[in-house]
Design brief:
This protein is of the alpha+beta class. It has 2 domains: about 10-130, no CATH class; about 140-270, GMP Synthetase, Chain A, domain 3, CATH 3.30.300. It is about 35% helix and about 25% strand. Strands 1, 2, 3, 4, 5, 6 and 7 form a 7-stranded mixed sheet that branches. Strands 8, 9, 10, 11, 12 and 13 form a 6-stranded mixed sheet that branches. A hairpin with a 5-residue loop joins strand 3 (about 65) and strand 4. Helix 1 packs antiparallel against helix 2. It comes from Pelagibaculum spongiae. This is Enhanced serine sensitivity protein SseB.
Length: about 270
Amino acid sequence: MSNIKENPLERILRLSHFEPAHRTEFYSVLLDSTIYVLGRMLDAKNNTEGCANVALGDKVSIRSWERRDGSSMIPFFSSLEVLQKSAGSDEPYLAVPAKSLFEMTKGQTLALNPKSDYKKEFDADEVQQLLSINLSREVNQRVIQKQAKVVLGQPAKYPTAMVDQLTQLLARHSAVNKGYFLLMHDKSAGAKPRLVVGFLVDEVDPQQPFELLSKQASEVIAQSAPQGQPVDLYRVIENKPGLSQFFIQKTQAFYDRSWGSKLCVSLGHGKA
């Protein structure tokens, strides 16, 4: 893709290749994108190459490619330019909403930009997760019971990778004031100590609801937390007693919004 100007999908695909913090944004952009596949309409009246109105229920023929191991996958492309660079300019193609393509091809393996520097393969399970808007490996949102006997502190080994990725994510959420983490051992449950990640956020921001932040943070944590370490999410509320006050008064924030603008500038001008 070096000689082709990036569109938004190609940009976030490239960024997500290096940073897990961008992966949930990649999925969101992908599902809102129109993509290109090798194929044609089967309806003789609409057998126009490059038709941009293909939707679920239309009769189409979509080409698959055979991989070296003999298995097949369906290639799809982020732009017409990338398709033609990969397959040639004479190949018939269709423009399809990405979500419609996933619906049409349930049970099959697909590959985005398979001949480009930055590519992404989707197996049947991942496609199903995308369609149900249920990103894989979500982290629990922790509800602390009042009578629980817990020991709170810091982990012996600092979770550097997780903190770095969360810092990049939070820098893109203007509603987040601070980010914290601690290690919690609920002795009454006899379970393994858990990391608890807490976010102090402004009151309801319709543009960035806490549910969206939680989903994105869950994916980042699942990709970057220490191996085998359980992690919970917690919403820190400034005037709420209990765990919120422990975060605010006893724990040093790993992220502060005042650093965010500096991080965004750095991220916006970085080169992959």
